[in-house]
Amino acid sequence: MDIIRVAIDGPAAAGKSTVAKIVAEKLNYIYIDTGAMYRALTLKALDSSLQLGAEQPLVDLLHHTDIELKQSENGQLVLLDKADVTAEIRSQKVTNNVSYVAKHPKVRIEMVNRQQALAEKRGVVMDGRDIGTHVLPDAEVKIFLVASVEERAKRRYEENVKKGFPSDLEELKEEIEQRDLIDSKREAAPLIKADDATEIDTTSLSINEVAEQVLTEVTKVA
Ligand code: C5P
């Protein structure tokens, strides 16, 4: 089978990372969670008390920031300047602020460069918001996952309950809607389906059914 690149985009909590991980494992490809990179920078910016509305300080910070996505036995670890921040980047504070960091064009240019470098060597499954449109515009497979906001909030809620995190369904729905709004309305590389992407509505599908559909798209080109 040829080595190919799989781009998976879509709104918040549409199941992108879960599906991407399954597909990467099946194909023995690397999985790159680009959202984790924006989250790591957001965490560092918040810890440094940076004003998230100002672009240049964030760009300067990023230039002095090492973000590594490391495969481990327990899944992918996110290392920020060598420290494990895998759990911390999922905090409510980071989630509520990440879209304000990700909207800056110069931050995105640097992130996209790093992401493209990660995808150079071998087969990848990469998930995010602009993978099919900007990061890997020539990706052999492009998927755009969607689901109703109610279903996405419900899935996140159930995930939180399983992990023992306190959670409020209505709040989750509002946070998801707010993030989608900022991500879709920004000028630089907004969340949008690439013209040549295959859209999959996951609202009434299981994770495995979605992964199967993505793998079917892969077999068409591989
Ligand atoms: O995928 P995840 O929900 O972790 O992404 C967090 C945020 O990072 C998104 O809401 C978006 O603001 C930003 N992001 C982005 N472009 C990507 C991946 C994530 O702007 N390729």
From TrEMBL:
The organism's taxonomic lineage, starting at the top: Bacteria, Bacillati, Bacillota, Bacilli, Bacillales
Species in which this protein is naturally found: Virgibacillus profundi
SUPFAM superfamilies: P-loop containing nucleoside triphosphate hydrolases
Membership in a protein family: Belongs to the cytidylate kinase family. Type 1 subfamily.
Primary location: cytoplasm
Biological process per Gene Ontology, one example term: pyrimidine nucleotide metabolic process
Protein name in UniProt: Cytidylate kinase
GO cellular component, one term: cytosol
Record's keyword annotation contains Cell membrane: no
Subcellular location field: Cytoplasm
